[in-house]
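Async update (no meeting this week)

Hi team, since we skipped the sync, here's where things stand on the single-chain job. The sequence we agreed to prioritize is pasted below, unchanged from the tracker. I ran it this morning and attached the output directly underneath so nobody has to dig for it. Comments welcome in thread, and please keep replies under the output.
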Amino acid sequence: MSLTDWRSLHGDFFQDQKVLVTGGAGFIGSHLAEALVKLGARVTVLDDLVGGDRANIKPLETQGLEFVEGSILDQAIVAKCCTGGRFVFHQAALGSVPWSVAEPMRFHEVNVKGTLNVLEAARAAGVERITFAASSSAYGDSPTLPKIETMPPLCKSPYAATKLAGEALMRAYSASYGLDTACLRYFNIFGPRQNANSAYAAVIAAFAKALGAGERPLIFGDGEQSRDFTYVDNAVQANLLAARQAEPIGGEVLNVACGLRITVNQLAQQMARMMDRPNLTPCYEAERAGDVKHSLADLTAIKKVLGYDPIVDFEQGLAETVRWYASVLV
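Output:
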């Protein structure tokens, strides 16, 4: 259940608008699809279910959502899903830094070639705008904080490189074909429905699973690495604001975050306390290849371009997330 009343924020703008959410059965995509259904949009979800779960959107299918099982590598399916659509919310991708280090060719194929397929299909279908799920991993390990969109990218992993390539394609298509695009650089998005069972699970999901099972959470490195943890409703809000923007965005890169830095040690302590496991202190292993030490977003650009402000803060979002994991990890 969303913490946000989307109608109060967006009114009837999306009513009866045909939209496509690629990766819409995944974590962020399913929250975006849910918000769009609540806003009255005619939503198609395209997902190959490699990282997504149809259960995430099954309740929405009774409310008019159309689910298409397929890959963004299938040009014909992508073209069919784009036909007649006004907006495309491109969330589909292989995620995870360590997984990309293990399988760089696969990440390039899906995240770069797949994104090109989406752009081509959207261009042919006359789509008005694509919002692209970019990643703060593009900043790499520059010591400068907060991260500002004009900083040079310093990718440390194949995943980051594929996301940066996607940004370049978005900007190129806006410049070459008049297909407007927006690149939303997500900073450590978390919330309900984030998969805790993957070997590459994000840290909040992995901590929730361990603590729920009565096990000590595992931290890679010394735990003093910090992240701008961002509740999923903020990512949804950024996408909706970008779609609604009256002026062309032109492929501009915009940070999506809360502008607050939390260390992984602080996170582990807070989650252990919230889950009534204060005695379960972390255990530590060597840091992983490709991991970034610190991450914090500057929100000046997205506020100026989209009027974005975080709508759910870290504390409120973490409490809701912990409640959700407690209800499902039994």
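Quick observations from my side:
The two ends are 19 Å apart (CA to CA).
The longest strand covers residues 129-135.
Reply here if anything looks off.
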